[in-house]
């Protein structure tokens, strides 16, 4: 790009050019120019034009520097015309993968995937083979953490969890001995399985790449074995396991059409039954009403329907007989249930038998008490206690953003809770014994809380 230095302002001069010009203009000149101005820095300050001062020597020495400075000035001026886009927080939060970036530029929504592929770093060759099979041959869209995740995400695990829960229909897990060594892979597997239980979906698709000891949560699931030989089609089963939504949609459409045909046939049959006159031409309308979910009828049922079509008037009489039999069956069931209700009345139990049962219950309770005194295990189930703690945290601190609790913290809370409950009930039993009673009542607990005062954690 060639630039005219006469059109460029003096601000574009670089430091090197200014030093050269000042070095040539600083020496004083005795002979003035044609305009009567000195040919040094004094005349330049008055005119700012080297040609009128007859200083062609300076122009010859600095022409290359002036051209270079003008080019850099014009290029900077051109670059300043364009500016980067301002970051929109609402749009930037939705961008998790490279596909999201390209789709949002075109005005589309975020990218959704058929499955998220989870594997160990040592099994990357098998993962590449699986991606090649599913994407190139079966036209499925997979999401990989190393390939599709965009750079600069603050928390990688949170982005992967969002992709598994909201953007990906399935989670394909390549199980091997290396996969089970990674704690992050185990966490994502447990998270996806919990999502499947919550949404009642088939979320996890396990694929066994190397024979190893399976984790406990996968023992009851059907696993696709890559090393299995024979008629077992691994890639076909994997494809069918991922894309099952289209098949269910086709089945629902087919079932709706067959139900409509079945409904029309049933209406025509009811009209003929009301008129009680059947013509020979209307025999085709008396075809057997099949189940709309069945595609092909049974051969024996067809033979029976052909025999019934020979005499339509007899079919109507048989239909009335069937109604009578159905009414008789209803009456028989009514009698049966009334007899059963009469037999289920409480029988008289002698006093001796009731006392023996009470004694047995007492012995059973004493055995439980002895067992609980000896054991050191926690009594409240951990799953129930964990749900209660989560509910309390969400009620007291709704905006805290606490999602997970450490196992050690949960165990400490449970031990403290059980110790408090045991001590509370021990004091309550002392109050009931002081009142000369064996049964613990509600006002004993109220009295104990009253006696403890504000020092008790419950009363705070």
Automatic annotation (TrEMBL):
It comes from the Eukaryota. Residues 288-322 are annotated as: Disordered. Residues 111-242 form the TIR domain. Pfam families: Histone (PF00125), TIR_2 (PF13676). GO terms for molecular function: DNA binding; protein heterodimerization activity; structural constituent of chromatin; TIR domain binding; Toll-like receptor binding. SUPFAM superfamilies: Histone-fold, Toll/Interleukin receptor TIR domain. InterPro entries: H2A/H2B/H3, Histone-fold, Histone_H3/CENP-A, Myelin_different_resp_MyD88, TIR_dom, Toll_tir_struct_dom_sf. GO terms for biological process: defense response to Gram-positive bacterium; innate immune response; MyD88-dependent toll-like receptor signaling pathway; positive regulation of canonical NF-kappaB signal transduction; Toll signaling pathway; toll-like receptor 4 signaling pathway. Belongs to the histone H3 family. This is Myeloid differentiation primary response protein MyD88. It comes from Dufourea novaeangliae.
